[in-house]
Structure formats: C-alpha cells, structure tokens
Amino acid sequence: MRTVVISDLHLGAPRGRDLLRRSELRAPLLEELRSADRLVILGDGLELRHAPHRDAAEVARPFLEEVGAALGPAGQVVMLGGNHDHGLVSGWIDARLATEPSGFLGLDERLTPPAAGPLAERAAELLAPARLELAYPGIWLRDDVYATHGHYSDLHTTMPTFERLAVGAMARWAVRMPVHGARPDDYEAALAPIYAWMHQLTQRSESAMASAATGASTRTWTMLVGAERRRRPLRALGLKAAYVSAVTALDALGIGPLDRDVSAPALRRGGLHGMGEVARRLGIDAPYLLFGHTHRSGPWPDDDPAEWVAPTGARIVNTGSWVYQPHFLPEAPNSSPYWPGTAVVLDDAGPPQIRRLLGGFPRDRLAPAPA
C-alpha cells in the first residue's frame, strides 16, 4: 500500500492562504494521488476557527471531489482531527463521555463518518467514490510508523504562543498532567475546553474572532525577528524588552519553561521538543513518528539529525503545510523549510520520504491574488 500524508491544509482560511483551494496548486498533489492507495490528512485539513461548521464542507468541495476522483473506488482517505478542526471528532468524544468515564481514548481510535457527525458525513459524500474514515488522536500507518497532528505538543513546546500559554495555564491550575504514563484523555482535559470555547465563538459569530490569537502571534514574531524589526527598530526593542519580562514572569508562575529566543531555529527546537515529550509521556513506541502542526517540514539535509530524534528513540518527521505564510518565505523556491506543499510518501517498507510538490512554483505564484 502506498500512503500519501499531508497536513495543515486549513481549507477555508481567510485571504486565500489555503493553497489547495486553487486548482493549479492542487494539480501536483492529485498527480501524486493517482499512484497512491490512501491519503492521510494529518489534522487541520479544514479551517473551523474562521467560519462555522455548516460552511466547511462546501468550501472544501472542489478539493474533496477531485481527491476522491484521483484515488478512485479502491482508494481511501483518512482524516484526523487537529486543533483547528477538533470539531470533526469532538462530538464523538462528547457522546462517549455522556455514557462512559474518561479514559477510553487510545492512541488510534477509528470513527465512521456517521459517528463523527454531519460534517464528516458530507465530506464522505464529496469524496466518493473513495472511502472516508476518521482517526484520533493518531493513526498507526504501519507497525513501525505512528502519525498524529501534533497539537498535544502545545503543552510542552517552549515557544510562548497564545495557545501555548492558554493550555499551559490549564495544565498548571485546572488539570493534572502526568509526567509518566499519560493518556490521550489527560491531554484532552487540558486542550478540549479551549477548543470548545473557540468552537462556540466561531459557530455563533460570523467573524473570525477565535482566530485572532494566531494573527497576534504572527505579528509579534515578525516584529521581534522578522521584517518589521528592521522597519521599526525602536518599537521592536521595546517589544523585545516587554517580551523577555513577560516570559520571565510566566516561568515564575509555573507555565513554562518558555524560551526567550523566538528565532526560526528556536521555533524548530521548541516544536520538536514538544512532540518528543508527547511521545515519551504517551509511550509511543514507534521507530518513526510523523506530525504536522508547526508547518515546519523536515528533516532536510541541512538539519541536525540529532534534533529529530524523540526521547523514545523515534525518528521524527514533520509533514509541513499547504498554507501561504509570507513572513517565512524568501523569494527562492524551496529555500525555506516552511515552503508549502510538502507531502510524506510511505510504502510498505522503508523510511518515510518527504517530497516537495509545490517546489516548481515561485513565491509570487503562491501568493494570493490581491483582494
């Protein structure tokens, strides 16, 4: 069986940043799928923080229909929930909690579309003739390969994003997170209430208020280390001083440890540390561990291989994203590990292979058209 793994499509993201809604950018992926048996969307396939659930399937309709046609009746699509589309699986989890105590989540729970709810059922209709299955919080792709979105790592990453601070506060004061022998339900106890609040805000408002924290994190990063630092040096210096003071205070409150360095290497190290800690606490015994979430694909030849090994010994592979993030992208194609359009291809044996499917597109062709 040949499996293609992608993540972080964010179909429905505002301002045209979700590249797979554009037919010319879907074409390389569809060509890859014609020789595959299974597509795994490793979380955040749908953007459910910017628009209500009721609109999500129709927004993704062209992509879903073309994927189903490319895979054909013998093909399968597996969708995992992430932090931005946790709503795909939250109804199923809540239904089980209504009749049984917490603790039922294993590392690889499979759901049928009817069990997941109306959004998954509509996605299954659009993907026909290919078959849809859902999995959460991860999936064993082979006996030696485990894959998950990676949002559990927000409890351990050293990068002080707004979401990291929120879940850190939950873990500090509201729930107990075991240092050893944790279960998926332990992570859900800290994360799910935050996702539920964002979900309700989005469902009951036509605006994207629940996604404001993401934009704030991006603006802060560009001011501290990106282009805005050079354009507004005095403001950047002031923000840097405030940032260092805030991190020191948060560490003192027990929400850390957090990193004062927000450079691109620090972002990479923070994400890998977080995912490695998830693997250790959950006891994920796999030679290979795939995740997305950070949008930073790898490892690439210039990366230090030692950074990409979890405490369990698993070799970590990140599937990248299909989102246009100009603050991470230089002019030259494929010159950044954040260059969108990566996929991981997995055959019956051998290591996972990372492929750049949008490497032939210069940055100006990836950029959304002006509004």
Q: Which features would summarize this protein structure in a list?
A:
alpha/beta; Metallo-depent_PP-like; 371 residues; single chain; hydrolase activity; Calcineurin-like_PHP; 13 helices
Report what the structure shows.
The structure is a single chain. By secondary structure, the protein is α/β, with parallel strands linked by helices. It has one domain. The chain is 40% helix and 13% strand. The protein is built from 13 helices and ten strands. It has helices spanning 23-33, 53-59, 61-71, 87-97, 113-116, 118-127, 162-174, 184-203, 212-224, 227-231, 233-252, 264-282, 363-366; strands at 3-6, 38-41, 76-80, 108-111, 131-142, 145-148, 288-291, 315-318, 342-346, 353-356. Strands 1, 2, 3, 4, 5, 6, 7, 8, 9 and 10 form a ten-stranded mixed sheet that branches.
Oligomer: single chain
Q: Kindly report how far apart the N and C termini lie.
A: 42 Å
The value of Rg in angstroms is 20 Å
Question: Residue share in helices?
Answer: 25-40%
Note the total helix count: 13
Pfam families: Metallophos
Protein name: Calcineurin-like phosphoesterase domain-containing protein
InterPro entries: Calcineurin-like_PHP, Metallo-depent_PP-like
Domain Calcineurin-like phosphoesterase: 1-155
Strand and helix layout:
Blueprint lengths: L2 E4 L16 H11 L4 E4 L11 H7 L1 H11 L4 E5 L6 H11 L10 E4 L1 H4 L1 H10 L3 E12 L2 E4 L13 H13 L9 H20 L8 H13 L2 H5 L1 H20 L11 H19 L5 E4 L23 E4 L23 E5 L6 E4 L6 H4 L5
Parallel strand pairs: 1-2, 2-3, 3-5, 6-7, 7-8
Antiparallel strand pairs: 1-9, 4-5, 5-6, 9-10
Protein name: Calcineurin-like phosphoesterase domain-containing protein
GO molecular function, one term: hydrolase activity
Pfam families: Metallophos (PF00149)
